[in-house]
Amino acid sequence: MKYNLGTVVVLLSALKCYPAWREHVVVVLYYLLCNSCYIFSLKTSFMKWKPDYDSAASEYAKAAVAFKNAKQYDQAKDAYLREAESHQNNRAAYEQAGMMLKEMQQLGEAVLLIEKASMMFIENGTPDTAAMALDRAGKLIENVNLNKAVELYQQAASVFENEERLRQSVELLGKVSRLLVRSRRLDEAAVSLLKEKNMYKEIENYPTCFKKTIAQVLVQLHRNDYVAADKCVRESYSIPGFNGSEDAIALEQLLEGFDEQDQDQVSAICNSPLFKYMDNDYAKLALSLRVPGGGVKKSPASPQEAAGTTGKAASHAAEDDDEYSSGLC
Ligand SMILES: *[C@@H]1O[C@H](CO)[C@@H](O)[C@H](O)[C@H]1NC(C)=O
């Protein structure tokens, strides 16, 4: 249906005189614009002189869907926002408006609306829905704003954690750790990985704890903190099944190679399937791991020789008075 925008504007301003009708008039206009013929369904509403926000909201919802189907995302977003505003509790409408902004590639604004929706979900006692909304917002923004995505996944993880939904929480923490590694925020990644590992321990998923230990060690070695890396491995021996596992054996060899500045040994371990088929962010850490001292092997005759150049001397000193209190492992 063709429509004349001028007519629409005139119609709108004429009906401004009747504020009670305004909500409905806007809906009618939406339908006109949507090439729809639902006007008759509103006629009972027109008999009322008081604004009826509930039915306005549901009409906006229908209009929004119609716009969405017509791929007119800007109008759909406006309709969803109007739906959300005319219906006090309509959190889902805010989220939907956010999704329309996503279609328009306005990701920052989309995420703001979804966050707003998730706050309302929490206030209204549906934290699971809130966490899932935050997770979706994180996915939207991940490719353009890593830091924002980290923040959203962290929020979602703690909402689930508060609900004692540890499986959901730890899955989101996994995303947090990976993205922190991707953005080279390795100190924070170490903290996040420790939290992840402890949570997997709590839900008794031990094999995943072993994989998390590998990730921890890679992060700590990239931070040039051999002592922390070693501590992560020692600590894992308290987890059932770690001693003697392929993960434990590979990690001991990796630590040994790193300690002896044997780049060949380190590269061999880091190129093994165990490391190569980890999540891409960790596999990349493995492939880029370089031993200190530029790969000049320590001479077994004089083990102290290279220690000063690696930062290990300081680390070993710290180990003496601070054996288990660093908190990273
Ligand atoms: C691992 O197991 C072996 C024998 O099964 C034992 O001798 C060794 O002490 C264990 N290592 C640790 C660190 O628990």
UniProtKB/TrEMBL annotation:
Interacts with RAB11FIP5. Interacts with VTI1A. It is a peripheral membrane protein. Belongs to the SNAP family. It is found in: Golgi apparatus; Membrane. It holds the Pfam family SNAP. It comes from Callorhinchus milii. The gene is napgb. Required for vesicular transport between the endoplasmic reticulum and the Golgi apparatus. It comes from the Eukaryota. The chain crosses the membrane at residues 29-46. Residues 319-329 have a biased composition (Acidic residues). This is Gamma-soluble NSF attachment protein. Residues 70-97 form a coiled coil. Its main location: Golgi. Residues 295-329 are annotated as: Disordered. GO terms for biological process: intracellular protein transport; vesicle-mediated transport. Keywords: Coiled coil, ER-Golgi transport, Golgi apparatus, Membrane, Protein transport, Transmembrane, Transmembrane helix, Transport. One of its GO terms (cellular component) is SNARE complex. GO terms for molecular function: soluble NSF attachment protein activity; syntaxin binding. SUPFAM superfamilies: TPR-like. The keyword Calcium does not apply.
